Each structure stands twice: as C-alpha cells, then as structure tokens.
Amino acid sequence: MATLPARPDALDPSRDVFKDWDKVPLFMQSLPSELDSSRNDGENENGVGKDNVALEALQSLMYEGTPEETAQSLKETANEYFRGKEYRKALSFYEQALRELGKDLSLETKRTLWANKAACNLELQNYGSTLRDCALIMAPPSVEDSTTLKALYRSSVALFKLEKFEESLDCIERWMQLNSRIGGGSANPLIKKLRADVEGQWQKKLDYVESVERKRREDEESKVVLLKELKSRRLLLPKNFDPSFISCPSDVPPPSYSPTEGGISYPVFLLSPFSTPPTRDLIVSFSEQATFADALPQDVLEQCGIFAVTRKGRILKMGKKIVLAKLIDGCWKDAEKDGLELKDGWCLEFYLIQKGREKEWSEEMRKNL
Fold first, then answer.
1. How far apart are CA 322 and CA 202, in angstroms?
2. At 283, phi and psi to the nearest 5?
3. Any residues with CB less than 8 A from the CB of 60 and at least 6 apart, and which?
C-alpha cells in the first residue's frame, strides 16, 4: 500500500500561519520596537537597517494621500490612544501631524490638532503647554466656534491649577459670552463646577492674604507698643535696639507685652558659675509681675542667693519675693544712668550663687568686669 506524502508545514495545525503577518506593513497592529535607523552591520545597500525596513515601509504607507488625509489618519490614531488614557502617545501623534504636515494643513485642521494637544497637555499637567496650545487656537483671525469654547475651558482649568484665579474667571466669562453668541445652549455643568471651584479657591487666597496682612499690621502695632513700654521701664536697651528681636533664637519667644497678662514678659537666663559644670538655664517667659519665689524650686531658693550685674558693673542682690518689675526699677541709679540691661536686645541675666560663696564670686566678678 502506497505511503501518503508528509503533511506540508503550512498545513500543520500546530503552526500559527498568521505569525509573520505583523511583519507586513499593511497588517501591522503596532509600530516595531526597533526605531534606531543608524547604520550598523545589518544595514542594506541603501544604508537602512534590516530591522527598520518594515518601519520604513509602514511610514511610506502612512504618508500616502493628501496632507489632510494623512493628518486625519494620525489624528485618529492619537484619538484611540487618548481614549485609552495613553496621553503621551496621543500627544506624540498630534505633534507629528503638526510638525510634519502643518504648513500644508487648513487652519481648521490645525486648530483641531492644537485643541487635542491642549487636552493631552492638560491631562499630563503640562499647564504652560496647555495655555500655549490654546493661545494658538484663539490667535487672529479668531473664530467663534466650539473649538474656541474648548480652548477657553482648557485655558481656564490650566490657569486655575496655576492659581491664577482672576485670569481663570476671565476665561470662564469669555466662554459664557461666546457660548451665548453661537447658540450653545445652557452652560455646561463642567463650566459651572469650574467657576464655583475657582471662586472658592480665589476667596480662600484673598482671605489668606488679608489674614497675613492683618497679622503684619498687628505685629507692627505690637512692636510700637512694646518699644514704648520697654522705654518706660528703667531698663537699658542696647544701641541700635531692634524691636523685631531678629537676634533672638527662633525657638525662644522674645519679650512681649500684654496689658491683661501682667505687662512685659522676658526670657530670663539664670547663670550658675559654681555648678559642675557651670550652667546657664533659661526661663522662657518671666512676667514682670512674677517673683523668683514663683519661678524657682524651694530648695534652690534656700541654697542660693540671686544677683544681678548692671551695665556699669554694680553687683546687686535680688529679693526672692519681690516682683521682677520692682527689681528692675530698684537696680536703676539715676545719677549714673545705670541699671539692668536687656542682654543682646532680648533677655535678662541673673546669677544663682551658693550661700557662703557670694564674696568669692563677687570678687572674681569684679576682676573680670
């Protein structure tokens, strides 16, 4: 019995007969991944890489027909990418159509491509590019149509995102006027929502700016009042005293004045030269109506005396139960115009000296003054 011939490979059911169709430009479903057309060992006699022959063929098919037809083909491809939310790919096709065919396209076609580019750039948060695309659409000779409406809407959104609220509202107003002139019907719900969002954010910005300005005015007024109050105390201020207290560390509140909370409060440093090691402790806010008995632990009060040194070097012992305002006043010596100084323009300094060592400390202090 005769043997049947072997089944041809083309009829082999395990073989995908459509596998190689993607290499034929007419049936390609996507661009090939090899986009490098630089010459290499695989180039043909025309200098075209073997891997790019298919791409060259596909491009020749794409650009068959009139510029308007080619632009329409590129636009439809871009539209598919846009619907699939692949905005960068869509943008590249719109740009390709304008870049390579723009000079041969009608104004209407170019305006459509610019509008679609603006939509991509808006989705990609390229707000500056969105505004440039929209400006091209609305450039003279201006056309009153739906494309201009889209340009005004997208310009308004981009300006809103850039926090240019007044300009954004201007675009919305122009949209409303144009929509009315061309018989576009009632305002689009998106426009209504955008307007509400812009007005809301603009009001917030205005409120914030006003609050900042109000605080600035209040701070200036507070500085004037504080400076007046400081000068009314018998307290020496440094030359070129700055009521802004810019030399005060940022984590320390500077002197402040409140008529309802005891007048002026100062940062106060307590220096303990006989501690091991010597310390410099800070009382962040010491009201001039408070006493050291209010501020210090009882054991410290029992073990130490409290001293102040005036600008001219007088050493004075402080009463522990006398309010700070009276201590400052008591340090003043009118004949010498001498008293306590606001150190560095923002703090007061006092010394905690262990009992029994006051004389030792005062003698050492006078040597160093």
1. 54
2. -95, 110
3. 25
H helices within the chain, ranges in order? 53-62, 67-83, 87-101, 107-123, 127-138, 146-161, 165-181, 189-232, 292-295, 298-303, 324-330, 358-368
Query: Encoding tokens for residue 132?
Result: 């440039």
pTM attached to this predicted model: 0.60
Half-sphere exposure at residue 272, Cβ-oriented, CA atoms within 13 angstroms: 14
Of 121, 120, 149, give the one whose Cα is nearest residue 137.
149
Return the SS3 of 351: strand
Q: Taking each helix axis from N to C terminus, what angle separates 67-83 and 107-123, rounded to the nearest 10 degrees? A: 20
**How would you classify the pairing of strands 315-317 and 279-287?**
unpaired
Cis ω before 32 (30° cut-off from 0): no
What is the DSSP-derived secondary structure letter of residue 274?
A: T
Q: How far apart are the first and last CA of the chain?
A: 131
pLDDT tens-digit readout, 314-360: 999 999 999 999 999 999 999 999 999 999 999 999 999 999 999 99
What is the C-alpha separation between 237 and 365, in angstroms, rounded?
Answer: 22
Task: Give one DSSP letter per residue of 224-245, joined into a string.
Answer: HHHHHHHHHSS-BPPTT--TT-
